[in-house]
Amino acid sequence: MPPPPTPPTRTPATARRVADETNGHGVVVSASELLCRAGDRAFFGWGEPRSREKALDLYARAASDASSPCASAMRRLGRCYEEGAGVAPDPDAAASWNEAAAALGDPDATCATARVVERAGDLRGAGERYQFAADEGHAGAAFELGRMYANGLGVRKDAEAAAYWYQLAAEHGDAAAQRAVGVAGMEAANENEANDPAAAAAAAREAIEWLERAAAQGDADALNDLAIVHED
C-alpha cells in the first residue's frame, strides 16, 4: 500500500457517466469514487467475499488517483489505520490520510482531524476545523463547536453561541447535542418554575423529548437523566 500522501490540492474531476445502482438514472461519478465503492463492497463483504486486503488496495488506488483523488477513500484509510482494520494501527498514517481528506473538504475527515488537533493541545486550530465541518452540515462538529463555546476552549466563552450550535447539532440528529439541549431545557424550566409555571412545564416537556431522542440513540447519560426526571 502506498504511504499517506501530502494533502492534495483540488483538481477538476475526471468523471464518467454511469447508471446509478439504486435507480438507474445517469449520474456523474468519478473513477476514483467507483474504486472507493468497490472497496466498500470488499471491506464489508457486500455481494462478494469479504477481503480487507482487497478493500485497502482499492481505497489506496482511489485516494491516490492523480486526476481525481477521492476524499471518502482517504477518510476510510484514515479510519483503517486508526482502528487497525486490515492493517497495523498507525496513528501517524491515520492523521496523514485524514488531513489529506480534510484538505479536499471532506467534513467527516475535517471533524476527525479537529479531534486529533484538539487532543494535541491546539484548541484554536481544532475550533477552526470544527467550524469548517459544522458549516458543511456535520452534526458532530456542530456539537464539538458548541462544547468549545460552552467551555471557552480556544474561543471566548459564549453561552448563546454554544446554545446555537448545540441546537443545530441536535436537529441534525447528534445524540450528545440532543442530551445537551435537553439538560439545558430542564435547567431553564426549573429556574423559571416559580415565575411562570405553565411556561416552565412546557419547557420541561420539550426538554424531556430531547432527552428521549438522545436516549433512543443509546446515550447513557440521557437515559440516566430521564431516570432522575421520572423519579421526581
From TrEMBL:
InterPro entries: Mitotic_Regulator, Sel1-like, TPR-like_helical_dom_sf. Residues 1-10 have a biased composition (Pro residues). Pfam families: Sel1. Coiled coil: none annotated. Residues 1-23 are annotated as: Disordered. This is Uncharacterized protein. It comes from Micromonas pusilla (Picoplanktonic green alga).
